[in-house]
Task: structure prediction
Amino acid sequence: MPVLVITGTGTEVGKTVVTAAVAAATVAGGRSVAVLKAAQTGVGPEEAGDAQEVARLAGDVTVAEVARYPEPLAPGTAARRAGLAPVHPPQVAEAAAKLATEHDLVLVEGAGGLLVRFDADGGTLADVAGLLDAPVLVVTSAGLGTLNTTELTARELRSRGLELPGLVIGSWPGSPDLAARCNLADLPDVSGAPLLGAVPAGAGSLSPAGFRSSAPHWLAPPLDGTWDADAFAEVHGP
Result:
């Protein structure tokens, strides 16, 4: 099934911009893409959510949400406080599977980290990936503190028998400090997965045309790009 689940090691690590970059690179390669947001929180009914931001940056993609809640909280908490029905993993998996019948690639973007709860039963994005038997791309941060959260996420995926094809740094700083430069080698080591890209900080502020033309240069060939981890580390490593 052509589904890729995209999670992060936490909030604000660049999941949406990485999702947009993967979508843009895939579309540039001539394939059709759908983006499914499992649970959108923190936006009102008429506001643009993460999936719409992906479409703005990436271009010709189909977008969908399973549910939307107004407060910027974990989906289960946001649903409870809003008095709305929560999202359950089978709903997300069913929506992704339907989109997969009509598109070459479906990107399922989570909310927060891998184990953020969708419902009172403890359903998570990891459960969605398990139902779909889909690989999970992990978006991580560049600097100090990222090694612990990245390793924990990788361990959880493997404990569930889920495939971790690689990591993408969601916001590579213009002036990386020593920790970020060392993490180019340490992130693959602690996670047991390769680096598959590094999206520059501020990429989401580019014009859509600039974003689409640049996206393949931020991602490795498994993600339809041309980025090379060894060459990147030679330039930016310690």
Q: What stands out?
A: The radius of gyration is 17 Å. The mean pLDDT is 96. The first helix runs from residue 15 to 28. Residues 220 and 228 are 6 Å apart (CA to CA).
